[in-house]
Amino acid sequence: MLKKMGFVIILLLSAVLGISAIVRYFILDPVEGNAILIREGMTMFRMNNQLWSIALYIHIITAAIPLVLGPFLFIKKLRNLHLQVHRNLGRVYVLMILTSSIVGIYLSFYAHGGILAILGFIGLDLTWLYTTYKAYKYIRKKHLVLHEEWMYRSYAVTFAALTFRMWSAIIGYSIDNFTVGYVVAIWLSWIGNLIAIELWIRMNLRKGKKRLSKGLTEEVTH
């Protein structure tokens, strides 16, 4: 029950963030929508740099899709009943992350907050690429257990899109220094997510598989 509730919450949060980002940048005026960020010194959101603006739009679309799509890849019933659908969704997930992370590295060099912010975003994008590549590599080798674990890690980094905004708001305004909070939030968003998912993998996913393996062994020996 708790697992289902967690899934629904993550799906709803992902959908809200993904849809709101698309509405904010593609339907409404992004300059007005980012007025607070511009006041904090993020002048790039005035959208005067055409190349940066195009990269940002690409990044938003290609990050929103895996954010919303990701939870459906963990539905075992969907995977078992519609394996080809699962595979196609997985291909879209990987392709979007490949595109978004590469574009994100370019955007990182314009990050607000100096070198620590730049390195934080580059670290996020490289980790996003790496975890997704590992998940892809293991499914190509048909190592289903390792594929599942690395998919959870990949989505944990994908979910940093949401936790980054959460932490930047909480820390930035609670210490009355938006820039410091912003930089801390960059690092905390993806490293914190990876720590949390690693603990979950070890405490739940692996223990569940060990119990299943033990049960199957006992059935065979009896």
TrEMBL record:
Pfam families with a match to the protein in the record: DUF2306
Keywords noted in UniProt: Membrane, Transmembrane, Transmembrane helix
Transmembrane regions: 7-27, 54-76, 88-109, 115-133, 154-175, 181-201
Database matches in InterPro entries: DUF2306_membrane (IPR018750)
Protein name in the entry: Predicted membrane protein
